[in-house]
């Protein structure tokens, strides 16, 4: 078993496509297939099931990949420490909820370390997938929030996955809305004010309970009659502008990324939310991970 073989299986797992993985690691498709088969034979396991539609990861392959990613990360840390990663390929991944400050921090890391060759991944995804990505080492860092309603359940999941939560900021709840919304002139928004308008929330797939919701208040909390679920931030902001909708969040907004059409107003409730980073316990952060956390702290301010 070699580090190169581990890089090959991780590339296939990330792309779920042999051809794309071969392109990513700069070898021919037959050579990649042969290297993975040699690894599977040596380790006496099947990592991938191959079909006409692509590849899927087996249960034992999923476990193997968790260890493979950890080995590759530790090897990268050694190179960073003793070689400065000169001429090396920069690999770094983050999984996060839909926060503009998380994107801004990611941009900072690319600008600082990108160089002529790198492979960076930013996944704006569902809450459960963030936890799963960091636990299985698909991402070095996750970004999500805790509040009184979800803290017990989410903290238990983090502990079960041997993950740590480091707070970045605690803030009262805010409303994101269009600058043209009739409520935009209000210095503070009440829940009753919001009832005539559609509530935009992020869909959580099979985990659509309030424990995994990206919004600290669900429609049930204040009897909201109009609800729209979306998967990505651009769609949410387009609907906020087009329908005079809104969402409930931290209030930290980047006009550089989102323009001046989206504004934040304080919500008249006592609830608060704490946004933080999720990392694996006992695993040293790469220089990219350390730089990302420093950058996200700066943008949260």
Give your account of this protein's structure.
By secondary structure, the chain is of the alpha/beta class. Among the domains are: about 1-90, Arc Repressor Mutant, subunit A, CATH 1.10.10; about 170-275, D-Maltodextrin-Binding Protein, domain 2 (3-Layer(aba) Sandwich), CATH 3.40.190.10. About 40% of the residues lie in helices and about 25% in strands. The protein has eleven helices and twelve strands. The strands form four sheets. It has a five-stranded mixed β-sheet with strand order 4-3-5-12-6, sandwiched between helices. Strands 10-7-11 form a three-stranded antiparallel β-sheet, covered by helices on one side. A two-stranded antiparallel sheet has the order 1-2. The longest helix is centred in the N-terminal third of the chain and has 24 residues, at about 60-80. The mean pLDDT is about 90.
- List the secondary-structure elements in sequence, H or E: HHHEEHEHEHEHEEHEEHEHEEH
> Helix count, per DSSP?
11
Q: What's the level 1 CATH class of the domain at 169-274?
A: Alpha Beta
Query: Would you tell me the structural class of the helices and strands?
Result: alpha/beta
> For the largest beta sheet, what order do the strands appear in spatially?
4-3-5-12-6
Report how far the terminal alpha carbons are from each other: 45 Å
Mean pLDDT: 89
Strand-helix topology:
Elements: H1 3-15, H2 18-25, H3 29-43, E1 48-51, E2 54-57, H4 59-82, E3 90-96, H5 100-113, E4 118-124, H6 127-135, E5 141-146, H7 151-160, E6 163-172, E7 174-178, H8 191-194, E8 199-202, E9 227-230, H9 233-243, E10 246-249, H10 255-258, E11 262-266, E12 272-280, H11 287-300
Parallel strand pairs: 3-4, 3-5, 8-9
Antiparallel strand pairs: 1-2, 5-12, 6-12, 7-10, 7-11
